[in-house]
Amino acid sequence: MTMQFVLHSFMKLCFIIFMKQTEARNDADDEHLQIQVPRVTKRDLGQRALDTREPIRMIVLRALHAYGVNVPPEAISDRRKRS
Fold it and tell me: Phi, psi (5° rounding) for residue 55?
């Protein structure tokens, strides 16, 4: 193994650990909210999520923000894992 390979592997590991800690911190600030909505509303949200390729969570948070509810801009993001 070369020193460059070891250094690269170490830096990659540090980045992965940092990202996991950042995700854990962001999730720690989140609260669970469960609501019942009319079936047609849920269907419309699901269709919009399909059309925009965004999670329903993002659509709802963006709508709440537009309504004047305090939603931090960084909360309106796609938290799904991409590969």
Answer: -70, 155
DSSP 38-51: -HHHHHHHHHHHHH
- The structure tokens listed for 49 are 């999520």
Per residue in 37-60, pLDDT tens? 999 999 999 999 999 999 999 999
Closest CA to 63 of 82, 26, 39, 35: 35
3-state secondary structure of 60: helix
49: amino acid identity, one letter:
A
The alpha helices in the chain, defined as continuous H runs, are 3-28, 39-52, 56-67
